[in-house]
Amino acid sequence: MTALTVLGATGSIGDSTLDIVRHVGLPVYALSGFGRLDKLFKLCVEFRPSRVGVPSDKVDEFAGRLKSANLAIDVVGGQNGLMDLAGDKGADKVVAGIVGSAGLRSTLSAVWAGQTVLLANKESLVMAGELIMSTARRHGATLLPIDSEHNAIFQCLPRAVQDDNTAIHRSEFGIKKLWLTASGGGFLHKSYDEMKNATVAQAVSHPNWNMGSKITVDSNTMMNKGLELIEACHLFNLSDAQIDIAIHPQSIIHSMVEYVDGSILAQLSSPDMRVPIAHALGYPNRMDGGVKSLSLFEMSALEFIRPDKNKFKSLDLARHAIRTGTGACVALNASNEVAVSAFLDGRIRLTDVADTVERVLDDDELGADFGKSFDEPEGILALDRRVRDRTDVYLRDLND
Ligand code: NAD
Ligand code: MG
Protein backbone atom coordinates (compact mmCIF):
# COMPACT_ATOMS: atom_id res chain seq x y z
CA MET A 1 0.00 0.00 0.00
CA THR A 2 1.16 3.52 -0.86
CA ALA A 3 2.61 5.30 2.19
CA LEU A 4 2.18 9.05 2.08
CA THR A 5 3.98 12.15 3.23
CA VAL A 6 1.72 15.20 3.36
CA LEU A 7 3.55 18.53 3.53
CA GLY A 8 1.08 21.25 4.50
CA ALA A 9 -1.16 18.69 6.21
CA THR A 10 -3.04 21.33 8.23
CA GLY A 11 -4.22 23.28 5.15
CA SER A 12 -7.01 22.84 2.67
CA ILE A 13 -5.05 20.47 0.36
CA GLY A 14 -4.04 18.57 3.51
CA ASP A 15 -7.72 18.27 4.53
CA SER A 16 -8.78 16.90 1.14
CA THR A 17 -5.84 14.47 1.01
CA LEU A 18 -6.36 13.14 4.53
CA ASP A 19 -10.06 12.75 3.88
CA ILE A 20 -9.19 10.30 1.09
CA VAL A 21 -6.62 8.62 3.33
CA ARG A 22 -9.39 8.05 5.91
CA HIS A 23 -11.72 6.71 3.25
CA VAL A 24 -9.19 4.35 1.66
CA GLY A 25 -7.12 3.54 4.75
CA LEU A 26 -3.69 4.47 3.38
CA PRO A 27 -0.68 4.55 5.74
CA VAL A 28 0.75 8.01 6.53
CA TYR A 29 4.53 8.23 6.80
CA ALA A 30 5.02 11.93 7.58
CA LEU A 31 3.03 15.14 8.10
CA SER A 32 3.96 18.81 8.40
CA GLY A 33 2.26 21.99 9.59
CA PHE A 34 3.28 25.55 10.28
CA GLY A 35 0.48 27.30 12.17
CA ARG A 36 -2.44 25.49 13.84
CA LEU A 37 -0.23 23.02 15.69
CA ASP A 38 -3.18 21.81 17.77
CA LYS A 39 -4.67 20.53 14.56
CA LEU A 40 -1.35 18.93 13.59
CA PHE A 41 -1.20 17.24 16.98
CA LYS A 42 -4.69 15.77 16.48
CA LEU A 43 -3.62 14.51 13.05
CA CYS A 44 -0.60 12.82 14.67
CA VAL A 45 -2.91 11.10 17.17
CA GLU A 46 -5.21 9.97 14.37
CA PHE A 47 -2.70 8.90 11.69
CA ARG A 48 0.37 7.94 13.80
CA PRO A 49 3.00 9.04 11.26
CA SER A 50 6.66 8.09 11.79
CA ARG A 51 7.82 11.68 11.33
CA VAL A 52 6.42 15.19 11.63
CA GLY A 53 7.68 18.67 10.61
CA VAL A 54 6.96 21.86 12.58
CA PRO A 55 8.54 25.38 12.70
CA SER A 56 12.07 25.23 14.17
CA ASP A 57 11.15 27.09 17.36
CA LYS A 58 8.34 24.62 18.09
CA VAL A 59 10.29 21.34 17.88
CA ASP A 60 10.89 20.83 21.62
CA GLU A 61 7.40 21.81 22.69
CA PHE A 62 5.77 19.61 20.04
CA ALA A 63 8.06 16.66 20.79
CA GLY A 64 7.12 17.02 24.48
CA ARG A 65 3.40 16.93 23.68
CA LEU A 66 3.82 13.81 21.54
CA LYS A 67 5.87 12.12 24.25
CA SER A 68 3.23 12.84 26.90
CA ALA A 69 0.69 11.19 24.62
CA ASN A 70 2.99 8.16 24.26
CA LEU A 71 3.53 8.80 20.57
CA ALA A 72 7.00 7.90 19.29
CA ILE A 73 7.22 10.30 16.36
CA ASP A 74 10.42 11.89 15.09
CA VAL A 75 9.99 15.69 15.09
CA VAL A 76 11.99 17.85 12.67
CA GLY A 77 12.00 21.64 12.37
CA GLY A 78 12.08 24.44 9.80
CA GLN A 79 12.90 24.33 6.10
CA ASN A 80 15.72 21.80 6.66
CA GLY A 81 13.26 19.51 8.40
CA LEU A 82 10.77 19.83 5.53
CA MET A 83 13.51 19.06 3.00
CA ASP A 84 14.48 16.00 5.02
CA LEU A 85 10.86 14.75 5.12
CA ALA A 86 10.33 15.48 1.40
CA GLY A 87 13.36 13.41 0.39
CA ASP A 88 12.69 10.52 2.80
CA LYS A 89 11.95 7.33 0.87
CA GLY A 90 9.88 5.97 3.75
CA ALA A 91 6.99 7.40 1.72
CA ASP A 92 6.02 6.26 -1.79
CA LYS A 93 4.28 9.53 -2.60
CA VAL A 94 4.80 13.07 -1.33
CA VAL A 95 1.99 15.63 -1.40
CA ALA A 96 3.49 19.13 -1.85
CA GLY A 97 0.66 21.07 -0.19
CA ILE A 98 2.52 24.00 1.37
CA VAL A 99 1.34 27.43 0.22
CA GLY A 100 3.60 29.94 -1.52
CA SER A 101 7.36 30.21 -1.90
CA ALA A 102 7.73 28.44 1.47
CA GLY A 103 7.13 25.22 -0.51
CA LEU A 104 10.01 25.65 -2.94
CA ARG A 105 12.85 23.94 -1.09
CA SER A 106 10.86 20.90 -0.01
CA THR A 107 9.40 20.43 -3.49
CA LEU A 108 12.92 20.56 -4.94
CA SER A 109 14.19 18.17 -2.30
CA ALA A 110 11.47 15.62 -3.13
CA VAL A 111 12.29 15.89 -6.83
CA TRP A 112 16.01 15.65 -6.12
CA ALA A 113 15.39 12.41 -4.21
CA GLY A 114 13.49 10.96 -7.20
CA GLN A 115 10.16 10.80 -5.37
CA THR A 116 6.66 10.64 -6.82
CA VAL A 117 5.41 14.13 -6.05
CA LEU A 118 1.74 15.12 -6.02
CA LEU A 119 2.17 18.79 -6.73
CA ALA A 120 -0.30 21.37 -5.39
CA ASN A 121 2.31 24.05 -4.58
CA LYS A 122 2.12 25.87 -7.92
CA GLU A 123 4.30 28.73 -6.64
CA SER A 124 7.36 26.45 -6.66
CA LEU A 125 6.87 25.78 -10.39
CA VAL A 126 6.31 29.47 -11.07
CA MET A 127 9.58 30.34 -9.31
CA ALA A 128 11.69 27.43 -10.44
CA GLY A 129 9.88 25.57 -13.21
CA GLU A 130 12.95 24.89 -15.34
CA LEU A 131 15.02 23.76 -12.37
CA ILE A 132 12.28 21.48 -11.02
CA MET A 133 11.50 19.91 -14.39
CA SER A 134 15.16 19.33 -15.31
CA THR A 135 15.94 17.93 -11.85
CA ALA A 136 12.93 15.63 -12.09
CA ARG A 137 14.17 14.33 -15.44
CA ARG A 138 17.72 13.77 -14.23
CA HIS A 139 16.74 12.20 -10.91
CA GLY A 140 13.86 10.07 -12.18
CA ALA A 141 11.16 11.85 -10.15
CA THR A 142 7.51 11.65 -11.21
CA LEU A 143 5.43 14.82 -11.00
CA LEU A 144 1.69 14.29 -10.80
CA PRO A 145 -0.23 17.58 -10.87
CA ILE A 146 -3.09 17.88 -8.37
CA ASP A 147 -3.97 21.49 -9.16
CA SER A 148 -7.37 20.63 -10.67
CA GLU A 149 -6.76 22.23 -14.08
CA HIS A 150 -3.38 20.60 -14.59
CA ASN A 151 -4.68 17.30 -13.36
CA ALA A 152 -7.53 17.57 -15.89
CA ILE A 153 -5.08 18.28 -18.73
CA PHE A 154 -2.84 15.43 -17.60
CA GLN A 155 -5.83 13.08 -17.71
CA CYS A 156 -6.69 14.23 -21.27
CA LEU A 157 -3.17 13.66 -22.63
CA PRO A 158 -1.93 10.41 -24.23
CA ARG A 159 -0.06 8.10 -21.84
CA ALA A 160 3.24 8.64 -23.70
CA VAL A 161 3.00 12.37 -23.00
CA GLN A 162 2.06 11.74 -19.37
CA ASP A 163 5.26 9.70 -19.08
CA ASP A 164 7.49 12.18 -20.93
CA ASN A 165 6.37 15.76 -21.54
CA THR A 166 8.88 16.23 -24.39
CA ALA A 167 6.62 13.90 -26.42
CA ILE A 168 3.89 16.58 -26.46
CA HIS A 169 5.36 18.03 -29.67
CA ARG A 170 5.32 14.72 -31.60
CA SER A 171 3.07 15.18 -34.62
CA GLU A 172 1.37 11.79 -34.25
CA PHE A 173 -0.18 12.93 -30.99
CA GLY A 174 -1.79 15.90 -32.75
CA ILE A 175 -1.92 18.17 -29.73
CA LYS A 176 -2.92 21.67 -30.84
CA LYS A 177 -3.36 23.57 -27.61
CA LEU A 178 -4.44 23.48 -24.00
CA TRP A 179 -7.48 25.22 -22.55
CA LEU A 180 -7.22 26.27 -18.93
CA THR A 181 -10.62 26.93 -17.42
CA ALA A 182 -11.13 29.52 -14.67
CA SER A 183 -14.13 30.10 -12.45
CA GLY A 184 -13.67 33.86 -12.79
CA GLY A 185 -13.94 34.16 -9.00
CA GLY A 186 -16.44 36.16 -6.98
CA PHE A 187 -16.03 39.43 -8.94
CA LEU A 188 -16.74 38.03 -12.40
CA HIS A 189 -20.05 39.83 -12.68
CA LYS A 190 -19.11 42.78 -10.46
CA SER A 191 -17.72 46.12 -11.61
CA TYR A 192 -14.11 47.20 -11.25
CA ASP A 193 -15.21 49.63 -8.52
CA GLU A 194 -16.87 46.85 -6.54
CA MET A 195 -13.64 44.89 -6.83
CA LYS A 196 -11.69 47.93 -5.70
CA ASN A 197 -13.88 48.26 -2.60
CA ALA A 198 -13.92 44.53 -1.80
CA THR A 199 -13.70 43.62 1.88
CA VAL A 200 -11.31 40.95 3.09
CA ALA A 201 -14.32 38.75 3.92
CA GLN A 202 -15.55 38.99 0.30
CA ALA A 203 -12.12 38.27 -1.14
CA VAL A 204 -11.52 35.17 0.98
CA SER A 205 -14.77 33.59 -0.15
CA HIS A 206 -15.23 31.80 -3.45
CA PRO A 207 -18.42 30.82 -5.30
CA ASN A 208 -17.34 27.22 -6.11
CA TRP A 209 -14.22 26.17 -4.23
CA ASN A 210 -13.35 26.00 -0.55
CA MET A 211 -9.60 26.73 -0.36
CA GLY A 212 -6.91 28.45 1.71
CA SER A 213 -7.04 32.27 1.93
CA LYS A 214 -4.06 33.06 -0.35
CA ILE A 215 -5.29 31.01 -3.31
CA THR A 216 -8.85 32.31 -2.80
CA VAL A 217 -7.67 35.92 -3.08
CA ASP A 218 -5.59 34.87 -6.12
CA SER A 219 -8.72 33.35 -7.69
CA ASN A 220 -10.63 36.56 -7.13
CA THR A 221 -7.92 38.67 -8.83
CA MET A 222 -7.38 35.88 -11.39
CA MET A 223 -3.68 35.90 -10.53
CA ASN A 224 -4.32 32.25 -9.72
CA LYS A 225 -4.94 31.64 -13.43
CA GLY A 226 -1.82 33.62 -14.29
CA LEU A 227 0.25 31.43 -11.96
CA GLU A 228 -1.45 28.34 -13.42
CA LEU A 229 -0.58 29.43 -16.95
CA ILE A 230 3.10 29.47 -15.98
CA GLU A 231 2.66 26.17 -14.11
CA ALA A 232 1.15 24.61 -17.26
CA CYS A 233 3.99 25.87 -19.50
CA HIS A 234 6.49 23.99 -17.31
CA LEU A 235 4.47 20.85 -16.61
CA PHE A 236 3.47 20.31 -20.22
CA ASN A 237 6.51 21.75 -21.99
CA LEU A 238 4.58 24.32 -24.06
CA SER A 239 4.92 28.04 -24.64
CA ASP A 240 2.21 30.31 -23.30
CA ALA A 241 1.04 30.95 -26.88
CA GLN A 242 -0.23 27.33 -26.92
CA ILE A 243 -2.35 27.82 -23.81
CA ASP A 244 -5.68 29.65 -23.82
CA ILE A 245 -7.83 30.65 -20.87
CA ALA A 246 -11.62 30.41 -20.78
CA ILE A 247 -13.79 31.49 -17.88
CA HIS A 248 -16.21 28.71 -17.05
CA PRO A 249 -18.18 29.90 -14.01
CA GLN A 250 -19.67 26.50 -13.13
CA SER A 251 -16.24 24.85 -12.50
CA ILE A 252 -17.43 21.51 -13.87
CA ILE A 253 -14.98 21.21 -16.77
CA HIS A 254 -11.59 21.51 -15.13
CA SER A 255 -9.57 22.07 -18.32
CA MET A 256 -9.20 20.68 -21.84
CA VAL A 257 -6.80 19.51 -24.52
CA GLU A 258 -7.55 20.47 -28.12
CA TYR A 259 -6.33 18.12 -30.87
CA VAL A 260 -5.66 18.86 -34.57
CA ASP A 261 -8.61 16.77 -35.74
CA GLY A 262 -11.03 19.17 -34.05
CA SER A 263 -11.58 17.06 -30.92
CA ILE A 264 -11.44 18.71 -27.54
CA LEU A 265 -11.03 16.33 -24.58
CA ALA A 266 -12.23 17.57 -21.21
CA GLN A 267 -12.32 16.24 -17.66
CA LEU A 268 -15.51 16.88 -15.71
CA SER A 269 -16.31 16.52 -12.04
CA SER A 270 -17.88 18.44 -9.22
CA PRO A 271 -15.51 21.13 -7.88
CA ASP A 272 -13.93 18.97 -5.18
CA MET A 273 -10.15 18.70 -4.79
CA ARG A 274 -10.51 15.09 -3.69
CA VAL A 275 -11.07 14.20 -7.38
CA PRO A 276 -7.63 15.26 -8.72
CA ILE A 277 -5.93 14.08 -5.52
CA ALA A 278 -7.55 10.62 -5.73
CA HIS A 279 -6.52 10.45 -9.39
CA ALA A 280 -2.89 11.14 -8.51
CA LEU A 281 -2.94 8.84 -5.48
CA GLY A 282 -4.25 5.96 -7.56
CA TYR A 283 -2.27 6.72 -10.74
CA PRO A 284 -1.84 4.87 -13.06
CA ASN A 285 -4.89 3.05 -11.68
CA ARG A 286 -8.14 4.59 -10.43
CA MET A 287 -9.19 4.87 -6.82
CA ASP A 288 -12.53 5.63 -5.15
CA GLY A 289 -11.68 8.59 -2.91
CA GLY A 290 -15.20 8.89 -1.51
CA VAL A 291 -16.44 11.63 -3.87
CA LYS A 292 -20.08 11.66 -4.99
CA SER A 293 -20.69 11.23 -8.74
CA LEU A 294 -21.36 14.34 -10.74
CA SER A 295 -25.10 14.56 -11.22
CA LEU A 296 -25.46 15.36 -14.94
CA PHE A 297 -29.22 15.88 -14.80
CA GLU A 298 -28.99 18.39 -11.96
CA MET A 299 -26.26 20.40 -13.62
CA SER A 300 -26.96 23.89 -14.97
CA ALA A 301 -25.84 24.97 -18.45
CA LEU A 302 -22.09 25.13 -18.98
CA GLU A 303 -20.91 28.62 -19.97
CA PHE A 304 -17.63 29.86 -21.42
CA ILE A 305 -16.64 33.53 -21.29
CA ARG A 306 -13.58 35.43 -22.58
CA PRO A 307 -11.66 36.98 -19.66
CA ASP A 308 -11.83 40.78 -19.35
CA LYS A 309 -8.14 41.64 -19.46
CA ASN A 310 -8.66 45.15 -18.17
CA LYS A 311 -10.44 44.04 -15.03
CA PHE A 312 -8.12 41.06 -14.54
CA LYS A 313 -4.75 42.42 -15.59
CA SER A 314 -2.95 39.59 -13.72
CA LEU A 315 -3.44 37.39 -16.77
CA ASP A 316 -1.36 39.62 -19.05
CA LEU A 317 1.19 40.21 -16.29
CA ALA A 318 1.74 36.45 -16.05
CA ARG A 319 2.07 36.10 -19.83
CA HIS A 320 4.56 38.95 -19.82
CA ALA A 321 6.54 37.29 -17.00
CA ILE A 322 6.84 33.86 -18.64
CA ARG A 323 7.91 35.48 -21.91
CA THR A 324 10.55 37.55 -20.11
CA GLY A 325 12.19 34.75 -18.13
CA THR A 326 12.51 32.97 -14.81
CA GLY A 327 13.56 36.12 -12.93
CA ALA A 328 10.34 37.86 -13.97
CA CYS A 329 8.28 34.86 -12.81
CA VAL A 330 10.06 34.96 -9.43
CA ALA A 331 9.20 38.68 -9.23
CA LEU A 332 5.56 38.12 -10.23
CA ASN A 333 5.16 35.47 -7.55
CA ALA A 334 7.00 37.26 -4.73
CA SER A 335 5.33 40.65 -5.27
CA ASN A 336 1.94 38.94 -5.46
CA GLU A 337 2.55 37.03 -2.19
CA VAL A 338 3.59 40.20 -0.39
CA ALA A 339 0.70 42.25 -1.80
CA VAL A 340 -1.89 39.54 -1.02
CA SER A 341 -0.71 39.38 2.56
CA ALA A 342 -0.89 43.21 2.81
CA PHE A 343 -4.46 43.01 1.49
CA LEU A 344 -5.35 40.30 4.02
CA ASP A 345 -3.94 42.56 6.77
CA GLY A 346 -6.26 45.33 5.60
CA ARG A 347 -3.40 47.57 4.42
CA ILE A 348 -4.26 47.86 0.69
CA ARG A 349 -7.19 47.42 -1.69
CA LEU A 350 -7.79 44.25 -3.69
CA THR A 351 -7.07 46.03 -6.97
CA ASP A 352 -3.76 47.32 -5.55
CA VAL A 353 -2.45 43.74 -5.70
CA ALA A 354 -2.14 43.53 -9.50
CA ASP A 355 -1.11 47.22 -9.71
CA THR A 356 1.75 46.50 -7.31
CA VAL A 357 2.86 43.41 -9.26
CA GLU A 358 2.83 45.53 -12.41
CA ARG A 359 4.99 48.21 -10.77
CA VAL A 360 7.49 45.57 -9.67
CA LEU A 361 7.63 44.07 -13.18
CA ASP A 362 8.34 47.59 -14.50
CA ASP A 363 11.16 48.18 -11.99
CA ASP A 364 14.35 48.81 -14.00
CA GLU A 365 16.80 47.89 -11.26
CA LEU A 366 15.18 44.53 -10.46
CA GLY A 367 14.48 44.10 -14.15
CA ALA A 368 18.17 43.49 -14.88
CA ASP A 369 17.61 39.98 -13.41
CA PHE A 370 14.24 39.21 -15.00
CA GLY A 371 15.61 37.44 -18.07
CA LYS A 372 17.88 35.22 -15.98
CA SER A 373 17.67 31.45 -15.62
CA PHE A 374 18.89 29.79 -12.43
CA ASP A 375 20.45 26.38 -11.95
CA GLU A 376 20.29 26.40 -8.16
CA PRO A 377 17.63 27.62 -5.69
CA GLU A 378 19.89 30.10 -3.86
CA GLY A 379 19.82 32.62 -6.72
CA ILE A 380 16.04 32.31 -6.97
CA LEU A 381 15.59 32.84 -3.25
CA ALA A 382 17.98 35.83 -3.24
CA LEU A 383 15.95 37.51 -5.99
CA ASP A 384 12.74 36.56 -4.17
CA ARG A 385 14.00 38.45 -1.07
CA ARG A 386 15.01 41.54 -3.08
CA VAL A 387 11.62 41.64 -4.75
CA ARG A 388 9.86 41.33 -1.38
CA ASP A 389 11.84 44.27 0.00
CA ARG A 390 11.07 46.41 -3.04
CA THR A 391 7.39 45.45 -2.92
CA ASP A 392 7.26 46.59 0.71
CA VAL A 393 8.57 49.99 -0.41
CA TYR A 394 5.89 50.27 -3.10
CA LEU A 395 3.20 49.27 -0.61
CA ARG A 396 4.37 51.96 1.82
CA ASP A 397 4.09 54.53 -1.03
CA LEU A 398 0.46 53.46 -1.51
CA ASN A 399 -0.32 54.17 2.10
CA ASP A 400 1.43 57.56 2.26
P1 NAD B 1 -3.65 26.61 3.15
O1 NAD B 1 -3.33 28.00 3.56
O2 NAD B 1 -4.99 26.06 3.46
O3 NAD B 1 -2.56 25.60 3.77
C1 NAD B 1 -1.19 25.86 3.64
C2 NAD B 1 -0.35 24.82 4.33
O4 NAD B 1 1.02 25.26 4.24
C3 NAD B 1 -0.65 24.69 5.83
O5 NAD B 1 -0.47 23.36 6.23
C4 NAD B 1 0.40 25.57 6.48
O6 NAD B 1 0.72 25.17 7.81
C5 NAD B 1 1.59 25.36 5.56
N1 NAD B 1 2.49 26.53 5.56
C6 NAD B 1 2.14 27.83 5.44
N2 NAD B 1 3.25 28.62 5.53
C7 NAD B 1 4.29 27.78 5.73
C8 NAD B 1 5.68 27.99 5.92
N3 NAD B 1 6.22 29.22 5.94
N4 NAD B 1 6.47 26.91 6.09
C9 NAD B 1 5.95 25.68 6.08
N5 NAD B 1 4.64 25.42 5.91
C10 NAD B 1 3.82 26.45 5.74
O7 NAD B 1 -3.35 26.53 1.57
P2 NAD B 1 -4.03 25.55 0.50
O8 NAD B 1 -5.24 26.19 -0.04
O9 NAD B 1 -4.11 24.16 1.02
O10 NAD B 1 -2.96 25.63 -0.69
C11 NAD B 1 -1.74 24.91 -0.64
C12 NAD B 1 -1.11 24.94 -2.03
O11 NAD B 1 -1.93 24.19 -2.91
C13 NAD B 1 -0.99 26.34 -2.63
O12 NAD B 1 0.17 26.40 -3.40
C14 NAD B 1 -2.20 26.44 -3.54
O13 NAD B 1 -2.02 27.31 -4.62
C15 NAD B 1 -2.33 24.99 -4.02
N6 NAD B 1 -3.68 24.61 -4.41
C16 NAD B 1 -4.67 24.60 -3.48
C17 NAD B 1 -5.96 24.24 -3.84
C18 NAD B 1 -7.06 24.16 -2.81
O14 NAD B 1 -8.14 23.69 -3.12
N7 NAD B 1 -6.86 24.59 -1.59
C19 NAD B 1 -6.25 23.92 -5.17
C20 NAD B 1 -5.21 23.95 -6.09
C21 NAD B 1 -3.93 24.28 -5.70
MG1 MG C 1 -6.29 25.36 -9.90
Automatic annotation (TrEMBL):
MF terms in GO: 1-deoxy-D-xylulose-5-phosphate reductoisomerase activity; isomerase activity; manganese ion binding; NADPH binding
Any matching Pfam family: DXPR_C
Annotated metabolic or biological route of this protein: Isoprenoid biosynthesis; isopentenyl diphosphate biosynthesis via DXP pathway; isopentenyl diphosphate from 1-deoxy-D-xylulose 5-phosphate: step 1/6
Domain DXP reductoisomerase C-terminal: start-end pairs: 268-389
UniProt-listed GO biological process terms: isopentenyl diphosphate biosynthetic process, methylerythritol 4-phosphate pathway involved in terpenoid biosynthetic process
Domain annotation 1-deoxy-D-xylulose 5-phosphate reductoisomerase N-terminal: ranges: 4-129
Name of the protein in question: 1-deoxy-D-xylulose 5-phosphate reductoisomerase
InterPro entries per record: DXP_reductoisomerase, DXP_reductoisomerase_C, DXP_reductoisomerase_N, DXPR_C, DXPR_C_sf, NAD(P)-bd_dom_sf
Superkingdom assignment: Bacteria
Keyword annotations from UniProtKB, A to Z: Isomerase, Isoprene biosynthesis, Magnesium, Manganese, Metal-binding, NADP, Oxidoreductase
Family: Belongs to the DXR family.
Reaction(s) this enzyme catalyzes, per UniProt: 2-C-methyl-D-erythritol 4-phosphate + NADP(+) = 1-deoxy-D-xylulose 5-phosphate + NADPH + H(+)
Binding site for 1-deoxy-D-xylulose 5-phosphate: K122, S148, E149, S183, H206, S219, N224, K225, E228
Function statement: Catalyzes the NADPH-dependent rearrangement and reduction of 1-deoxy-D-xylulose-5-phosphate (DXP) to 2-C-methyl-D-erythritol 4-phosphate (MEP).
UniProt binding sites for NADPH: T10, G11, S12, I13, N121, E123, G212
Annotated positions binding Mn(2+): D147, E149, E228
EC number: 1.1.1.267
Domain 1-deoxy-D-xylulose 5-phosphate reductoisomerase C-terminal intervals: 143-236
